[in-house]
Amino acid sequence: MNFKGIIGQREVVKRLEEQIKNKKVGHAYIFSGPKGIGKRTVAEIFASMVMCQEDGGYGNCGVCHSCRLFKGGTNPDFYRIKTEKNTISVEEIRSMQKDVYVKPLYSPKKVYLIEEAEKMTVQAQNSLLKTLEEPPLYAIIIMTTSNNESLLETIRSRSVIYNFKKNTYEEVKKYLIENINLDEKEASFIASYADGVIGKAKELSESDEFKELRERTIGILLKLNEGNLKDIFFAYDFFEENKEKIQDILDIMLIFYRDILIAKKFGNEKMLINLDKKDIILENLNNFSTEKIYKNIETIDNLSNNIGKNVNYQLAVEVMLMKLQEEEL
């Protein structure tokens, strides 16, 4: 197991490999980046490499006792905290800390992976801080997070932080063609919606639910443009029903308006992302002025930026829907 299969993240991979080769591995890491960008995968590969009983190199040997146990998911020197709940409690961290002070059984290092570390309560983070201040030499703690700002400054300052960058459109498209076996047209479509995140691209490629979500979202945009007040209430019910998918819905809306704008400005159908909706887009060109499209895009962007800032969801969505339906003066 090594980093050869990792797409992008060259700087992160290079620095981790150098640390292993030069025997300068740190005791605490924060892998920060969007959900689905590959943080957990890189963390697991890194863990397997530092736990390998063979010395150095750019991968684990795959044959020593530690590697074989790791591959089978049974190496007791690898400890994972992962929860489906909203928080990681102080009790879960304390349980991990008890294990930290037990020396490794089979590996030169013990690795502790805390997934979605932003879920740690303040009490849990303060408890973890004690271990970060005086870690055993054999212990490595890796935290993955989509928002490292949610971690205490005292934890961030005691950790090496690696920011995972989004992949390029071409990297995502190539992955979909080579690993999911999509044709170029379908891969281009999914890559456009994936926002540079391969995990999201993979999920979308396998999701019939996303296709239905797109159909309903585009239908709502067209209904809102008709100017009937009752359509706002219908649209709000849709947003409430799909609250957990709000970011996907906003992305669909932005890309649909982008397609109308492209069609109006350039008249080039091949530039459309929603190419399968070409007829609908062309039929509605005269129903949206260029100025109105820009205003709608700004309105959606505002909601997208505010949605993670503890704004009132209902009020924010209602304001957006009313602005989208506003007639031009």
From TrEMBL:
- One of the record's GO cellular component terms: DNA polymerase III complex
One Pfam match: DNA_pol3_delta2
Decide whether keyword Cell cycle is in the record: no
Listed InterPro entries: DNA_pol_HolB, DNA_pol_III_delta_C, DNA_Rep/Repair_Clamp_Loader, P-loop_NTPase
Query: Which region is the signal sequence?
Result: none
Q: Which domain of life is it from?
A: Bacteria
Q: What is this protein called?
A: DNA polymerase III subunit delta'
Lineage, broadest ranks: Bacteria, Bacillati, Bacillota, Clostridia, Eubacteriales
